[in-house]
Design brief:
By secondary structure, this protein is of the alpha+beta class. The chain folds into five domains: 163 residues, no CATH class; 190 residues, no CATH class; 108 residues, no CATH class; 89 residues, Immunoglobulins (Immunoglobulin-like, Sandwich), CATH 2.60.40.10; 85 residues, Immunoglobulin-like. Helix content is 15%, strand content 36%. The protein contains eleven helices and 46 strands. The strands form nine sheets. Strands 1, 2, 3, 21, 22, 23, 29 and 30 form an eight-stranded mixed β-sheet that branches. An eight-stranded antiparallel β-sheet has the order 7-12-13-14-15-5-6-18. Strands 8-9-10-11-16-19-17 form a seven-stranded mixed β-sheet. A hairpin with a 7-residue loop joins strand 38 and strand 39. Helix 2 packs across helix 3 and helix 8 packs across helix 11. The chain starts with a helix and ends with a strand.
């Protein structure tokens, strides 16, 4: 089937230039993007240092070209923005992952590739993108206990179930699929030559990929020769004889996103004990080092953006077969199926950046922002706007799912997209709108819509909608296509791209927002205070030392300008995008704080650099729950001022700050007014040195300016100078103090002043 598609693609390649990227169809967003990009940055930086020398590399870090052309930030690819390739460096190496208490330790294996075991092995009748079940003859511990494995043509084995889809061999698939050991996860095709063989020894099995070529759409790809040796102890070895491919993933994973995947340089990690999974992505092509590109951006711009959106005019693809992806830099939300991370400092952002979108070459996209994008667009209906919305939505989507028999039936490709068989209401994050035609229909389910916008469930997970505003939906379990003749219908993979007009049969699983909350927990913060206004910086990367073509800048400007309108529309008018490059107007209350009715909360307003004139800033409030002065004036030569917001009545109000000269960003923050101090929660935040207390609520937002009463039984308490100037919470809701002279058995009683109901006791 894949060869038929390749012939079709070769025909399309002869069509006009707009079809040149037809084979690039996938979104390569997955939960290991962040460690992958940090590893790419580390290895690329070291490679540049080795080839140029430290002094030359330091000089190269000074940008040869960087400028704002209107609202597009342009930089050239110098200074490490164009990452050095990470070619396969394990050929001739032999790696042992030795099972030990607590994990697997990576060592250099004393064994070597065995030609004798390869020749004596039993060939498996494997097709392209195929897998066969093999009995081990012993029980092997690996994320469970197994007496059989699935051997794949693509240089891997899996446990429990096969994963032989025609899809990208990626870190995301390694982490999100079934438990997998991958000596060479690549698109290998045994139908074009070579063989995959199984040799059984004493308490061990060796699988050999003997001269199996890399898949090629024309002719024959280079042949690969390597072995995987499994031991009954749970140890395993990668034994390489002849590797000549251009890209691959190597490593292992317990699968199903059970634990984080360590992305490392395997050749540099001998002696390391890995407690979960470990892997490395190899490739012979250059790539954009998004970490270094972000650092370059922040050399000339302020930390005032939630998203960086990167296009390049140098033809550098995101990843093999991938149109675009999103890398989460900071995640702050509970209850959406995600893990919290904060790598902002590595990207040059001390406070705000949440995600980087790598959209790849601008030449991939039509000038018309609503024209279909390549082969994917003709299948799914995707255009440049839907793909920008898709990647932006990945900060919150699609990671949540109900659980059925250990599986997550709502999720599809790389466990970061909605399943083809999930009625996502035509979400931008894949899935389909599925019409249930009733159990009496010959084929019960029909896909009727794709990539139309952020669905009600999407909007709940994005913090834009209450759970009771989300209508019920469903997934189709065990989905199969219509039967051909008298045979059984073929299974429909969850990772299939969305497509209108597909019939299927299967078992209906009804799903409500309550079911999602039961599986993932309540979204924190919820829709009452969650961020709904986001700032995007659009970046164009050009050739080293060159300005970009004017047409490329105009193209990205068209996308930037249209995206503001589009983002608001597909979110049902509940979210807004600001894509200007205006300077920062920072509020300590952003994105949300709380205050009790009748009390005040201090808010600090800040700009990056002093001005030679007074900056007048209007403060606007909504819904009548708060009171704030307006306007306020930042004096000439100053960069910050503090004012108070007073809580008037229970409810949530917006506080909007806008500079009267229009030259700074407009800042929107939400203020949650609680009926009394007794409605707040006092928590011990840290007790391993100074004592840190936090005042917060069920949405985990900060309550600044709240006085804490301390009663000491043994020793004395004093606030931490340089943090607090009294026993009052800071803008982040924290209050720091030292507990001097405390002995074992000493206690401190702490409570919010005026709210004895909030009392907590800390013991030494």
């Amino acid at each position: 089937m894949k060869r038929l598609l390749a012939i079709l693609c070769s025909v399309l390649a002869a069509a006009p230039p707009s079809f040149a990227a037809d084979a690039i169809t996938l979104c390569s967003t997955h939960r290991t993007n962040l460690p992958d990009h940090l590893n790419v940055h580390r290895k690329s930086t070291r490679a540049l240092e080795r080839t140029r020398g430290l002094r030359a590399f330091a000089a190269a870090e000074r940008p040869a070209f960087a400028a704002d052309l209107g609202n597009i930030a342009v930089m050239d690819s110098s200074g490490g923005v164009l990452a050095a390739p990470n070619p396969f460096d394990l050929d001739g190496r032999n790696l042992l992952f030795r099972a030990e208490p607590g994990g697997l330790r990576l060592l250099d294996s004393p064994d070597r590739y065995s030609p004798a075991q390869a020749e004596a092995g039993t060939p498996l009748p494997l097709g392209d993108d195929d897998a066969k079940l093999v009995q081990l003859g012993f029980s092997m511990p690996f994320s469970g206990s197994h007496d059989s494995i699935w051997v794949h043509s693509d240089g891997t084995i899996t446990f429990w179930e096969p994963d032989a889809a025609t899809a990208a061999r990626s870190l995301g698939r390694l982490a999100g699929g079934p438990p997998r050991i991958a000596p060479l996860f690549a698109d290998l095709d045994p139908t074009a030559g070579g063989s995959v063989r199984v040799f059984r020894g004493e308490n061990q099995v060796t699988i050999t990929w003997l001269d199996v070529p890399q898949y090629s759409s024309s002719g024959f790809g280079p042949r690969q020769r390597f072995q995987l040796r499994l031991h009954g102890s749970g140890s395993f070895e990668f034994l390489y004889s002849s590797i000549t491919l251009s890209s691959a993933v190597v490593g292992y994973s317990p699968g199903r996103l059970q634990s984080p995947l360590d992305v490392v340089g395997l050749s540099e990690s001998a002696g390391t004990l890995f407690v979960s999974g470990a892997a490395e992505r190899f490739g012979s092509d250059s790539s954009i080092d998004i970490v270094r590109a972000a650092q370059r951006f922040y050399e000339t711009h302020e930390d005032a953006y939630d998203y960086l959106v990167m296009f390049n005019a140098i033809g550098v693809a995101v990843a093999p077969g991938a149109l675009a992806n999103m890398t989460a830099v900071r995640t702050k939300v509970h209850g959406i199926g995600d893990e919290l991370v904060d790598a902002g400092l590595s990207f040059g952002s001390p406070r705000r950046l949440q995600a980087v979108l790598n959209m790849g070459p601008n030449s991939t996209y039509p000038l018309d922002p609503y024209a279909p994008v390549g082969f994917r667009g003709r299948i799914t209906g995707d255009n440049t706007m839907t793909l920008l919305g898709h990647e932006a939505g990945h900060l919150f989507l699609a990671l949540a799912s109900v659980n059925v028999d250990g599986g997550r039936p709502m999720l599809g490709a790389q466990s970061a997209h909605w399943s083809f068989n999930f009625n996502s209401e035509a979400s931008l994050l894949e899935g389909n709108r599925i019409n249930d035609r009733g159990p009496a229909a010959e084929f019960r389910y029909l896909t009727t819509g794709t990539v139309e916008g952020y669905s009600p469930l999407d909007q709940y997970l994005m913090g834009l909608r209450a759970p009771w505003e989300v209508p019920p939906t469903f997934a189709v379990l065990n989905a199969t296509a219509p039967r051909i003749g008298s045979g059984a219908g073929a299974p429909i993979p969850a990772s299939k791209l969305p497509q209108v007009g597909v019939l299927s049969q299967g078992d209906r699983l009804d799903i409500t927002a309550g079911d999602i909350i039961a599986a993932e927990g309540r979204r924190i913060p919820d829709h009452t205070v969650a961020q709904s206004r986001f700032r995007f910086a659009f970046i164009l990367i050009t050739h080293e030392g060159q300005e970009p073509p004017a047409a490329a800048v105009d193209q990205i400007e068209t996308y930037r300008n249209e995206f503001e309108v589009y983002f608001n529309r597909v979110s049902g008018g509940r979210a807004w995008a600001d894509t200007s490059l205006r300077p920062m107007l920072k509020l300590s209350a952003w994105p949300a704080i709380g205050v009790a009715a009748g009390h005040q909360a201090p808010v600090t307003l800040e700009i990056a650099r002093p001005l030679n004139y007074g900056l007048v800033i209007g403060l606007h409030t909504t819904h009548g729950h708060i009171e704030a002065p307006s306007p306020v004036t930042l004096p000439a030569g100053e960069t910050r001022l503090t004012f108070n917001v007073k809580g008037l009545s229970e409810g949530v109000s917006d506080l909007v700050a806008e500079a009267w000269n229009g030259q700074f960003e407009a800042v929107f923050t939400r203020i949650d007014v609680k009926p009394s101090l007794a409605s707040l929660t006092l928590q011990p935040y840290y007790t391993g040195g100074p004592i840190v207390l936090r005042v917060t609520d069920r949405n985990s937002i900060a309550y600044p300016g709240v006085r804490i009463r301390i009663a000491v039984n043994g020793g004395s308490a004093r606030f931490v100078d340089g943090y607090n100037h009294d026993f009052v919470t800071l803008p982040d809701g924290l209050m720091w103090f030292w507990w001097d002279g405390a002995e074992p058995g000493s206690t401190i009683d702490a409570e919010i002043d005026g709210a004895p109901e909030t009392r907590i006791t800390i013991k030494q």
